[in-house]
Amino acid sequence: MKDDQKVLNYLAQLKALVEKVIMTLPEGVSGRVYVRKHSVDLDLQGPRLGVFTLVLGGEAPELVYDEQYVGIRTIPEGLDAVIEFAEETIDDVATFVLSSQPLLVHKSPIFRRSYLCIPSNHGPEWKLKRFS
C-alpha cells in the first residue's frame, strides 16, 4: 500500500510539472495533461495532423501518433530527466506540427514495416513504428 501511495505522489508531481511546461506551448499548439493508470499522458495537437501523445512515468517514455504509430526512448532515471525529456519532445512536436513539412509514411527496407519520421532538434529523429 505504501508503494501505491508513492506512485500516486510521483504521478501527481510529474503531472504538475508537465502542466507548467505546456503553459509555454507556442500559439497554434494545444496541450492536455492527464493521468491514465500508471502514467501521465500529454496530448499535443496543432493546426494540422492528428494528435501526438507523450506517455511519461514508465521506464521508457513513448511518443504515439494518432493511436497508430509509436516510438520509445530510454532516458536516465529521475524526475529532472523526465521533465527535460518532456520539454525537448514537446518542442520537437510543436516545431513539426507548426512547420509545413509533410508527414510521410516510410517502409523499412527489409520487412516493409510502416514508420513515420519526426525530426528532432535534441537528438536523433523519432521513428514511430506502426502498431501491429
Provide a quick synopsis of the model.
The protein is an alpha+beta fold and 132 residues long. The protein has helices spanning 2-22, 79-98, and strands at residues 30-36, 39-45, 52-56, 62-65, 69-72, 105-107, 114-118, 126-130.
Q: List the uncertain runs.
A: none
Quickly give the structural class.
Answer: alpha+beta
Helix content: 25-40%
- Measured on Cα atoms, how large is the radius of gyration? 15 Å
SSE topology string? HEEEEEHEEE
Percentage of residues in DSSP E strands: 25-35%
Largest sheet: 8 strands, antiparallel
Average pLDDT, to the nearest integer? 91
Oligomeric nature of the chains: single chain
- Kindly, what is the distance between the CA atoms of the first and last residues, rounded to a whole number of angstroms? 35 Å
Strand segment tally: 8
SS element count, helices: 2
Apparent shape? globular
Strand order of the largest sheet: 1-2-3-4-5-8-7-6
Structural notes for this entry:
The termini are far apart. This protein has 132 residues and is of the alpha+beta class. The mean pLDDT is 91. Strand 1 and strand 2 form a beta hairpin. Helix 1 (2-22) runs parallel beside helix 2 (79-98). The chain has helices at residues 2-22, 79-98, and strands at residues 30-36, 39-45, 52-56, 62-65, 69-72, 105-107, 114-118, 126-130.
Describe how the helices and strands are arranged.
Blueprint: H1 2-22, E1 30-36, E2 39-45, E3 52-56, E4 62-65, E5 69-72, H2 79-98, E6 105-107, E7 114-118, E8 126-130
Antiparallel strand pairs: 1-2, 2-3, 3-4, 4-5, 5-8, 6-7, 7-8
Helix pairs in contact: 1-2
